[in-house]
Specification:
The structure is a single chain. With 124 residues, the protein is of the alpha+beta class. It is 40% helix and 12% strand. It is built from four helices and five strands; from the N terminus they run βαααββββα. It has a three-stranded antiparallel sheet. A two-stranded antiparallel ribbon has the order 1-2. The model has no long low-confidence stretch (mean pLDDT 91).
Length: 124
């Protein structure tokens, strides 16, 4: 993973589509965001004890189940739609590719999320 570079594709508002917004939203939404809290509370999910990364995992599972995207458009070097969840021996949830190589973990999520939120002037 250290040898790979992930580039965030910031595109003009007029060119943003649903897929792009979902992909960026994976890294921008936090469990403390009031709209997200209300939405999940309506279906009985209390996000108060979620870490930002666990919220990312939950959103990824939901988006992956409802959408059939095959190619990531918001990132170069990170294939959001073709990664697979994996539970490590120490019970951490990470994502791997078809070869079993690590693609996403909490540290990488935090770095990407922080960069995106900072670039869009959102609270980290």
């Amino acid at each position: 993973m250290e040898n790979n570079t992930i580039n965030i594709n910031y595109i003009d508002k007029k060119d943003r589509n649903e897929q792009y917004l979902l992909e960026m939203g994976l890294f921008m939404c936090h469990p403390t965001d009031e709209n997200m809290k209300r939405t999940f509370n309506k279906v009985g999910i209390n996000t108060d004890k979620f870490t930002n990364y666990m919220f990312f995992v939950l959103l990824w599972i939901i988006y992956k189940a409802q959408d059939n995207y095959t190619d990531t458009i918001a990132f170069d070097g990170l294939d959001v739609w073709n990664m697979k969840p994996y539970v490590t021996d120490d019970k951490a949830i990470v994502f791997v590719n078809d070869n079993g190589d690590l693609v996403m973990n909490e540290d990488l999520y935090n770095r990407i999320s922080s960069e995106i939120r900072k670039s869009l002037n959102l609270k980290d």
